[in-house]
Amino acid sequence: MSGRCWKAVKMRHVFSHFSEFKENIYNKHLMLFLDYDGTLTPIVDKPQRALLSKKTKQLLSDLTRQRDYTIVVITGRALKDIKRLVGIKGIIYVGNHGFEIEGPQIRFRSPVYSGFRKILRELKPEILEQVSRFKGVFLEDKGFSLSLHYRLAKRSLISEIKTAFEKSVMEYMLTHKVKTNSGKMVMEIRPPVPWDKGKAVLWLFARQKFANKAVPLLPLYIGDDITDDDAFRALRNKGIGVYVGTPKESYARFYVRNTKEVLRLFQELLRLKEGDTQCRN
Questions:
Q1: Do the bridges between strand 92-95 and strand 100-103 make them parallel or antiparallel, or are there none, so unpaired?
Q2: Are both 22 and 86 inside the same structural domain?
Q3: Among residues 35, 228, 229, 230, which one is catalytic?
């Protein structure tokens, strides 16, 4: 797939084009990158309620035990949060959109200048002061970032909430002390460095490729959020992107409709690997 010029294309449903999908992943070591909220769990009103089902956890455990799969859970959540929620050994965990990474033989923290945490401490009360009048809004401190969630707020107030948020961070943005980003019903403050899910995925892919030079390696990324577009774009000529949700123009080549179809895809991946093992034997 290398050497081609890629641009955003209309996605195809995985299970309507499964023969093509299988052909792409056949006889390769899959590096399976998985978003959490909206991919492994349905989107819920409050982040703390997004818990893995027993079926999802069992399928993830089964995939992790496969010799030809490397499983990576990559999320905007804090590293300690996602490790607690998934709780499966052998997985590589990526928190804060790539600023924190931990797994078998790997521990990484993106360098953030020393004054950034002080800036977050200064910003927290300023943001809270601006948004405190809105019901259904809460601020999450994730160590490397701050996230303002407004999923529980009235839809008619969202524009005002965004304006209040922007007002509180504007001075810091203009002086390049912070960077802001948006996701599904959330606005975020991150360090002002060129690092995101896409950069983290490429770094992990290169690392894995160097460690397993003799094995054909294919990254497969599954995600539903705006922040996952960075990863789809980064992998557009190196691997496969699968978007979760209503199809749109994207760098992801395939889509599944919902989290139930994500689990169905996991089951198919396990069946394919079992078939490969039987053929080798």
A1: antiparallel
A2: yes
A3: 35
Query: Based on the domain organization, do 40 and 168 belong to the same domain?
Result: no
Look at residue 3 in the predicted model and tell me its pLDDT.
Answer: 41
Q: Are residues 205 and 234 in the same domain?
A: yes
Contact 244, 34 (CB under 8 A): no
Active site residue 35: yes
**pLDDT, one tens digit for every residue, the chain (281 residues):** 444 444 556 899 999 999 999 999 988 999 999 999 999 999 998 888 999 999 999 999 999 999 999 999 999 999 999 999 999 999 999 999 999 999 999 999 877 766 888 899 999 999 999 999 999 999 999 988 999 999 999 999 999 999 999 999 999 999 999 999 998 899 999 999 888 999 999 999 999 998 887 789 999 999 999 889 999 999 999 999 999 999 888 899 999 999 999 999 999 999 987 766 555 54
Which of 175, 190, 205 is the endpoint of a domain?
A: 190
180 shares a domain with 207: no
249-250 and 9-10 as β-strands: parallel, antiparallel, unpaired? antiparallel
Residue 252 belongs to what domain range?
9-110+195-280
pLDDT in tens, 137-155: 999 999 889 999 999 999 9
Our count of domains for the chain comes to 2
Query: For residues 256 and 240, what is the distance between their CA atoms, to the nearest angstrom?
Result: 13
Residues 176, 201 within the same domain: no
Final residue before a domain boundary, out of 137, 162, 190: 190
Do 185 and 212 fall into the same domain?
no
Which single residue is written with the structure tokens 């169905």? 264
* 111-117: long-range contacts, CB 8 A cutoff, minimum separation 24: 112/144, 112/191, 112/193, 113/191, 116/177, 116/178, 116/191, 117/143
